[in-house]
Write a structure and sequence with these properties.
The chain is α/β, with parallel strands linked by helices and 619 residues long. The protein has helices at 40-47, 80-85, 89-104, 107-119, 125-135, 152-165, 182-194, 206-212, 231-266, 273-285, 352-360, 395-402, 408-416, 434-447, 464-475, 488-494, 513-522, 556-580, 589-617, and strands at 2-11, 14-24, 29-33, 55-59, 66-68, 170-174, 198-202, 215-220, 223-228, 311-321, 327-337, 341-345, 367-372, 378-381, 452-456, 480-484, 497-502, 505-508. Helix 18 packs antiparallel against helix 19 (589-617).
Length: 619
């Protein structure tokens, strides 16, 4: 168990957290959320012993092993798989010991190395490292590639893999889905659900939080409050808590007014002096419940396109790639009209970015045609767009490059709508956070009033509020949108049509994002055997009627018992979920912890029962 007792944390002159008292039990999977600057990363630093609490204590189990994702990756000549394997220091040392012994033909040392490998369960170490690399999108042919040869985003993935390889009781992950594709995010979710230690994860991906977490730790206005359940449950509980707080405040204000009225009316009368004095004491003892402060939400707006022709852009029988020897996609037929909302799906390396670059015009088709309307205006956000912002310049400077003859006040008005008010428009971007830089890049894209938006992972570094604001702005946009994103909440809100890029082909995908996630898990080598795959996910096209297959007869007694067990567990879980929404429960920390443990156990039992029932249905 991890305990915070009267914990306070300061960074410089700023007090981030104070009076934090809470306990995180073994096996909790906790999503740490809060606005930028609330203290999420500083909390992680305190857990790792990198910063000292300003007051109070953090109690960790004496021999707790902590794993986290390194912020930087050195330019190493080591093969990627060795870098990941080194996360398990004991296994890596034993493998090196064995290699050195063989090289020296020291058979006694070889025997000793084998004994050590047995002790640390190291014989499958390389295979485990390979599976982590595969799950995070590294094809087998690059496992021996030097770490230094990978780009920044891929080195981030290597750091994630190395952290997952490290034996740990507490795993700290800070924005692990940044730089991951949707398939890698789905794989990571399944891996984390099987992790048997305590997990704390900072993330702005609400679908990821919903699928992984059992608790949410909300940092807000210097406080830290633990909620039981995933992100959706947190939103519901917090809304109810705020509603009850406002009711209590209104009731108290009414009582204050009533008491004050009595005091003002009768305090001068001798016959009522005692009653007036009594009410003055009562008024002084009222708790002073704070009114709910309405937090100002972020709102952005995409300018209306200058012109909006019906048919914007199309590819006809186009081969796409980087040359005759590097053809990625073949015979692509893809058209875009005003109002289209298309989400591109596909495993890492399938060619999504290649398709987008061909649509933009960065890559000319190797064969076939790219046909664009004369009034086409493209707004393109690529994964490297944020890195292309010019250091040492301000947001105003970037806009002046796009429109040198425009008045500065017009720039300031525009940037204010993208949350760069006042003098912030003149600040040098070097000190901007990753989210602020991404927001600026989106603002620059919007300035030219495009009628086609091509967005390749636009949400990296954006917080939850900004993602919601972007989703709302994109939903109101009149032009066409093509999006690649690992944020299923955003792509699900914005897109109403999906195309899958797979095996060199671009084709419509008949299903939703849940179907696509199931398809990913169904692929050979997906490393997620515990997750049952709905048959619906495989029905991309309606096949011709298949020959009737005679399945083994299902035992009706076993089937009935399995269905009753699932129904019973669902009923119990629903009862616990209802209890967890009652604000009164949270006055007893011990009861909350007990309910959380029982809820977690029930979920595990229900998953097992559902898997057994599915096995019976499938014969």
């Amino acid at each position: 168990m991890i305990s915070f007792r009267n914990f306070a944390l300061r960074r410089g002159e700023r007090l981030l957290l104070s009076n934090v008292d809470l306990a995180l039990h073994a096996g909790y999977r906790v999503g740490v959320i809060g606005r930028n600057g609330a203290g999420k990363s500083s909390l992680f630093a305190a857990l790792m012993g990198e910063v000292e609490p300003d007051k109070g204590d953090i109690d960790l189990p004496g021999k707790a092993r902590i794993a986290s994702v390194a912020q930087e990756t050195p330019h190493l000549p080591d093969p990627a798989i060795d870098f990941v394997l080194s996360g398990d220091a004991a296994v890596h040392a034993a493998i090196q010991m064995e290699a050195n012994a063989f090289a020296a033909e020291d058979w006694e040392a070889v025997a000793e190395a084998h004994q050590k490998l047995e002790e640390v369960n190291g014989y499958d170490g390389t295979a485990r490292a390979g599976r982590l690399l595969h799950g995070l999108g590294f094809p087998a042919e690059v496992h021996e590639k030097a770490v230094a040869d990978f780009s920044g985003g891929w080195r981030v993935r290597l750091n994630v893999a190395r952290a997952l390889m490290t034996p740990s009781d507490l795993l700290l992950l800070d924005e692990p889905t940044n730089h991951l594709d949707l398939d890698a995010v789905v794989w990571l979710e399944e891996w984390l659900k099987r992790y048997d230690g305590t997990l704390l994860v900072i993330s702005h991906d609400r679908e990821f939080l919903d699928n992984v977490t059992t608790h949410i730790l909300h940092l807000h206005d210097g406080t830290a409050k633990l909620y039981v359940g995933n992100y959706t449950a947190f939103e519901r509980q917090r809304a109810e808590h705020l509603r009850q707080q406002q009711i209590a405040h209104d009731k108290e204000q009414a009582e204050r007014a009533h008491l004050q009225s009595f005091i003002d009316r009768f305090k001068a009368k001798a016959s009522k002096a005692r009653q007036a004095q009594s009410r003055m004491k009562r008024l002084a003892k009222l708790s002073g419940t704070e009114a709910v402060r309405v937090e100002r939400g972020i709102s952005i707006q995409l300018p209306a396109p200058l012109r909006l022709p019906n048919s914007l852009l199309s590819l006809r029988d186009a081969d796409c790639g980087y040359g005759a020897d590097a053809t990625i996609l073949r015979s692509v037929g893809f058209g875009l009209e005003a109002g289209d909302r298309i989400g591109l799906l596909g495993v890492n390396g399938a060619g999504k970015s290649t398709l987008v670059k061909t649509l933009v015009g960065e890559l000319a088709p190797l064969s076939g045609e790219r046909m664009a309307h004369p009034d086409l205006r493209i707004g393109y956000f690529a994964q490297h767009t944020v890195e292309s912002l010019v250091a040492g310049t301000s947001p105003i400077d970037h806009l002046k490059e796009l429109a040198p003859n425009t008045a500065t006040q017009e720039f300031r008005n525009f940037l204010g709508g993208w949350q760069f008010p006042g003098d912030r428009a003149f600040e040098v971007i070097d000190n901007f956070s990753g989210g602020e830089k991404a927001r600026l890049a989106l603002a620059l894209l919007a300035w030219n009033k495009p009628n086609l938006l091509l967005l390749d992972e636009p949400t990296n570094h954006l917080d939850l509020e900004m993602r919601e604001a972007l989703a709302e702005a994109l939903s109101d946009f009149d032009g066409a949108i093509v999006m690649v994103s690992h944020d299923r909440h955003l792509i699900g809100l914005v897109c109403d049509e999906y195309w899958r890029v797979h095996d060199g082909v671009v084709e419509p995908f008949d299903g939703d994002l849940d179907d696509y996630a199931a398809w990913l898990r169904s692929r050979p080598g997906s490393d997620n055997p515990k997750t049952p795959v709905p048959k619906k996910a495989l029905e991309v096209e309606k096949p011709a009627p298949a020959p009737t297959v005679v399945k083994p007869k299902i035992n009706p007694h076993k089937l009935q018992k399995a269905e009753e067990r699932v129904a019973r567990l669902e009923g119990k879980l629903a009862e616990y979920n209802t209890q967890m929404t009652d604000p009164a429960v949270y006055s007893d920390a011990g009861k909350v912890a007990d309910l959380g443990r029982q809820q977690l156990q029930l979920r595990t039992e229900l998953e097992q029962a559902e898997a057994e029932l599915l096995a019976l249905y499938e014969g």
